[in-house]
Specification:
The structure holds two protein chains of two kinds.
Chain A (H helix, E strand, L loop, with lengths): L6 H4 L9 H9 L3 H16 L4 E2 L13 E2 L2 E2 L12 E5 L6 E3 H14 L3 E4 L6 E6 L4 H10 L15 E2 L13 H11 L1 H5 L9 E4 L8 H4 L2 E7 L4 E2 L1 H9 L4 H6 L7 E3 L4 E3 L9 H5 L4 E2 L4 E7 L13 E7 L6 H17 L6 H8 L1 H7 L34
Parallel strand pairs in A: 8-9, 9-10
Antiparallel strand pairs in A: 1-3, 2-4, 4-7, 6-7, 10-15, 11-14, 12-13, 15-16
Chain B lengths: L3 H6 L15 H6 L3 E8 L2 E6 L4 E7 L4 E3 H14 L3 E4 L5 E5 L5 H10 L15 E2 L13 H17 L9 E4 L13 E6 L11 H4 L2 H6 L6 E6 L2 E6 L9 H5 L12 E6 L14 E8 L6 H17 L6 H8 L1 H8 L28
Parallel strand pairs in B: 7-8, 8-9
Antiparallel strand pairs in B: 1-2, 2-3, 3-6, 5-6, 9-12, 10-11, 12-13
Helix pairs in contact in B: 5-9
The chains are: A alpha+beta, B alpha+beta.
Chain lengths: ~400, ~375
Amino acid sequence: MSDSKTPLLDELEKGPWPSFVKEIKKAARTSRKAKDLLGQLELSYKDKKTHWKHGGIVGVRGYGGGIIGRFSDVPEEFPGAAHFHTVRVNQPSGWFYTTDALRQLCDIWDKYGSGLTNMHGSTGDTVFLGAGSDELEDIFTELSKAEWDLGGSGSDVRTPSCCVGPARCEFACYDTLALTYDLTMAYQDELHRPLFPYKWKFKMAGCPNDCVASIARADFSIIGTWRDEIRIDQAAVAEYAEKGLDIQSDAIRRCPTRCMKWDGNTLKINDHQCTRCMHCINVMPKALRPGTDTGAVILIGAKAPIVQGAILSSVLVPFMKIEPPYEELKDLIEKIWEFWDEHGVARERIGELIQRVGLGNFLEAIDIEPSPQMITQPRDNPYIFYEEYYAEEKEGGEA
Amino acid sequence: MATKEEIKARKTDIGPPHYERFLHPIIKENYGQWQYHEILRPGVMMHVSESGAKLYTVRAASPRLISTDFIRAICRLADKYCDGYLRFTSRNNIEFLLKNEANIDPLIADLKAEGTLVGGTGRSISNIVHTQGWVHCHSSATDASGLVKVVMDELANHFTEMDMPHKLRIAVACCLNMCGAVHCSDIALLGVHRTPPRIDHEKLPNLCEIPSTVASCPNAAVRPTFIDGKKSVEVDEDRCMYCGNCYTVCPAMPIADPLNDGVSIWVGGKVSNARSAPMFTKLAIPYLPNNPPRWPEVTEAVKNIVEVYVKNARSYERMGEWIGRVGWPEFFKLTGIKFTKYHIDDFKYAGTTYRRTTQMRGV
């Protein structure tokens, strides 16, 4: 019989996949906080329920976001986990680090916190788990001295994040890292001081493969695309075919618009029909590349289910060039915020507001011309709210 | 301790460090000039620049919840093999960026010694995106890290091999809030509460603000009331959909229920625009019990769905595309999953999911 205090969690040290229990145990060697987290988690495994409470606003001077309060409901038993707050550190664009930078973060966190992190949180931040209420100012002071800043939380701009982009991906149709950095810097106030009806997420994806789930998760999705022709290297196409790729079944038949033809020698693409879905490029990255007239589709309104049901982003601007200083983009963002500020109710995401007022009215308010690219079909119900109609002319010619 | 002066003098709104500081020189030199990539073997990619320069990437799994010890260990490897540069992916993998091809094998050997796995590229099951669960969330109906661990233990060979019809993306969220892209994954595990919150009328007046507690409910199920002359709230149980939103606002309304909380399984979502449009995940199994530490019912169910997909889907067909082709009746038949009334939507746009054609299979 083992005398382990965590017999249930010990079971999760077994098996081939890397074990988070091992990680908590590593941190617990030197941190009372991590040790008590382990104890409390074992209790959750025994009781089959969480032992965390929300509530209690915690934060650091000058900021309204960046720290999320978390308290144990069994603090007497696990005093080290009594206050176990989250510190969201704004990650670098594309999650690139040097080892020096990572060690700097580790040093700060080992000094004050539990030694446990998430690399990374779902929104993208570098996450420190387990800060005591009394240590928050110290942690932020040290982070700030080392030139790190906090990310967003609550009803503010959440920390923008992006895919690997042109740093290491040939599909990137605009510079996702540069735009992420630029918007993050431009909207520092909105990021750190929650004044919106609810959260606002930006996610920059370099191409329609959308490796940051922008269309599913961002209120404002900027997804790279192009509007000229796919670049074809015919010799490389032939090489794929020689090496055994079945171009007919794996590329042509999977093309949603069937705009491609392959006669065994030459691949032809009717670019006018192409919807730029990326499939053929994904299959033959050496032979096919996005065009050179690149930019992005701007989509709006995605969110997870809470509270009115999940929404995917929908097309707002079918194509926009994405180049510094990004004025057109920022004008659009700020117009939308103004509308949201005026018409949104508490805890209403922009996607829900647009559904409430109607996309047509929203477009009018932010001064964008409706286009058929924004919808999958025109309305099929006849109840149109006309805003203009003819009135019978009165005597004397006045309407 | 930071002094008041230090806090006052603190520089705020400086934003993150500029990413250029963290880019490997070979990336800086070839930024935006990448021409193509090849997956050399599972977990190993080669990106080739127009200049002819080559960058190798080795992708390794992490449990996301990691200690500073682990970070220091991977830093030592990045120093040894990657000139001190590395990155993380949107699915919590670590990517080592190498200039020298000869370093790939020794790096992989060292990563194995560190207890991690290399893979997650191409037609594989990559790392699971997940939430905090019992480790750190107040509204969790299950543990997320534990589910990820037991499911990936079962599926690890699909991470280290590229033997799937197409990529398969799994996500875990510990309650209906669905933090993470759970609502758009090939397979999603979702913690569910199935009973309304219980109200502590003693504590509630001191802990919670009544109007914001009432307003927190999306279904107007929470109403103000008086209990023994004290202000409190009541819950119209028929209207409660167990979202836990009220508990977030009011700690005197705990929703966790060990007897009834559990895990639901959802399938067929995707985020990518490749071929078909992005799709939401749809309900496959409404409820499986929370059976920690290894959730055998859940791992069994996921394994079954994966195996049926592998056996039946065509090349380059994602889970949702395969189901779209063969139809949901076929999905339920092939997986042996029982179809129930809970599978039929009754929320806002439920009517759009009713079959309004005579075209169907499996009758």
